[in-house]
Amino acid sequence: MNKHYYTCLFGGEAGYGVMSAGSMVAKGANRNGLWSFAVNEYPSLIKGGLNSCLVRLSDQPLTAYEEPIDFLGLFSQQAFEGHIHQLKPGGIVLYDSTNVIVDDSNVPAGAVLYPISLLEYVPKGGAKIMGNSAMLGAFCALTGYPRTVLIEVLKDEFHSDKLREQNIAILEEVYAHVLSTLPVEKIFPLHFKQDVQPKMFMNGNEAISLAAIKAGCKFSAGYPMTPGSSVLSYLVDYGVDYGFVFKQAEDEIAAINMLIGASFAGVRSIGSTSGGGFALMVEALGFAAQAELPLVMVNAQRGGPSTGLPTRTAQADLNFVVHASQGEFPRIVMAPGDIEECFYETFRIFNLADKYQVPCIILTDKFLADSSVSQPLFDTENLSIERGKLFEQKKQTADEPYLRYQLSSDGVSPRAIPGQIGGRHIATSYTHGEDGFYSSGNHEYALNEPAIVVAGTDKLYNKLSAMEKDIPSINVYGPAEADLTIIAWGSTKGAVLEAMEQAARQGISVNFLQVLYISPFPTAAVELFIQHMKKSLLIEGNKTGQLGSIIRANTGYKADYSYLKYNSKAFVPSEILAKIKEVLS
Amino acid sequence: MAAFDNNLPYVPTWCAGCGDFGILNAWKKAMVLLNLDLEQTVLVAGIGCSSKISQYVNTYRIETLHGRALPVATGVKLANHNLTVIAEGGDGDGMGLGMGHFVHTARRNLDITYFIHNNQIYGLTKGQASPASDLGMITKFTPPPLGNMERPINIVKTALSIGATFVARAFVANVAELSVLMAEAIRHPGFAVIDILQPCVSFNHVNTYQWYQQRVKPIEKMDGYDPNHLEKALALAELWGDQIPVGLFYREVRPTFNGSLPQLTQEPLAKQEITNVDITKIMKTFC
Q1: Residue A359: pLDDT above 90?
Q2: In this predicted complex, what is the ipTM?
């Protein structure tokens, strides 16, 4: 069955409600048998600038967005100039005639222009954000998108009866007015129908927060940083009902140290930030590793270095998080590719953190964190909590003392939680022996230092073999063997999958190796797969091909081609398909 | 309390005569005074000579990063508010890297206790100026002729001005007094700070036992003393030189951060059942 798509984009200054206009269109479709994918773009400012919300709808599941746009709803001149070139031939452009002056030379041939003075419909004294209800009324009339669907969504958006009624009235009025000017009533190209199973409409950060709550995480501390901090605000919103505590910290260093404190006290904890905040947390990441305290951190990447591009996407922190902190220690780095992986792998990583007592990093990016996608309800039936080796309470005796860092074949020792009888110990950031003591604190240890250091370091690395068996490190999509293998990670997955679908339809043989867990690097699994690869195309959202170099370092394999994108935008399927064709030609 | 409960087999590596020994002794006495359940007590230490105290007492302990004891203590307390949480570190650890955390922990008024071993020098790194070093002090990093050109942090004054609800200063030579003050600080429901003057016999040859001995004066005997009055406490906190007041400067009972959170009125987070969290309700809000 052929997929059908419809893409619309709402653009304007911050403060006009373009994001919520797009979100309502997407939610309405999501509730009525369609699949939605919404991508928000916004600069780092509060008012003004150019915000946009691109909404792609389909009659089948969506994994990516594309830029040719069927409908543009534009509030400002900047929005008009910034987006008019994205219009499909024959597409519709609805714009605010009081704010936009059209230069015909910019307008693609065949475009249908519809000027309307949106703010005219906002009652005196009403906020300009209500202009988006006027926009939505006109959108329904011009495209045939059922206005009853939007009105239902709109009802849920407002908590005040007055605002709800005012906005519905604006939508209805503009709808009637625009409809009266059209020769025939429009029919929306996608068919709305009752959903058999309700779907969620959710972004990556929301899915991670939900997984944290499901995993029994009860504590978070953080400092706001786009695009990571919305994980924290969702936890604040949903958490109180679940006995969850969030503490805003004075800085990221305090935040991660609070998480470590809570972890030491036996509580599952999560932090979320972006690259700059993560940079401040790096020393404490090593502390968690040295003290063998479970920790789950989210780094939602944005463009860098330094302050970089606060609100734009990138995949350039991979090398950083894989190597962050001084010394050597194992860590888990997982890069989810979609909403499902954000949920299920976050749940899993809480178990992994506890079982292996290591710091874990969920590496996402602005595009995945912030784009909302239609998603069936998560199946939580089979998710079970595994806390790993825990100390069993007993009376401590002088001849049988509890050793927090007792050496064991799998490198993991039972963890005692403060308050447990008989579990008193020292957890420490120093390189230590089995009882947590170290050379510069004790003369006794100084004598055995080299042996203790080797045993302590080996202990950390002895965790690897069990970890490797326990972690579903790679995913392979498409045929087992193909003319071309795409190698990618993180949010690029969705665009690759759609490009592969199109390639398959055109008779091009492509498969896809997704590296889901990048540290510890799944050398054996990747080496095995490489043996069956003919040609490869590495696709990453950075300048230097960071996953490519990690693969090369671990396996010696160098990808044949690479497609590296670092222009602040996420990958789209059409570009990937073009690249596939280019390298196979 | 059995001796086993308060001692570990290791011999401290502090220099002979170090003020930290006195603090360790007072610490143990305070535990006994309070009859504290050591299984329910967590000592959170920074890094430095002072923080090595975590190696020599037998509660639950976590030896954190340099300067980061307070945020770790915050996490411990919020995760299990039934625990007695004591943070400890030196003047360098707490007033250098840790200063931001000090300010914010105080304004939160978490129910934790903070003992600062103040020797006015970086000892473990062998003698650099600390944020509490006196003006003009000659150290490795502040050579003659100028010496230390930065005004020292007055820990008591700072603690008072940022909202600590129990603020005291003690001189380590008086172990009995210090242990009583420590016990009171631990008992105080809120953020309690003791600035413990502690000579570094190896690297601070100015602020010696003798130097302190000649200057410390019991605050209760000083004019204008009223531990319930912030302005009066601040006025006495200004004194540093010929006279150095020691004792309790100020005490106030104010709602604590951990006591104000509705999530923490019942069982601690650490005791909550997590095996079967149902998220169906939240998932439906996304439909």
Answers
A1: yes
A2: 0.98
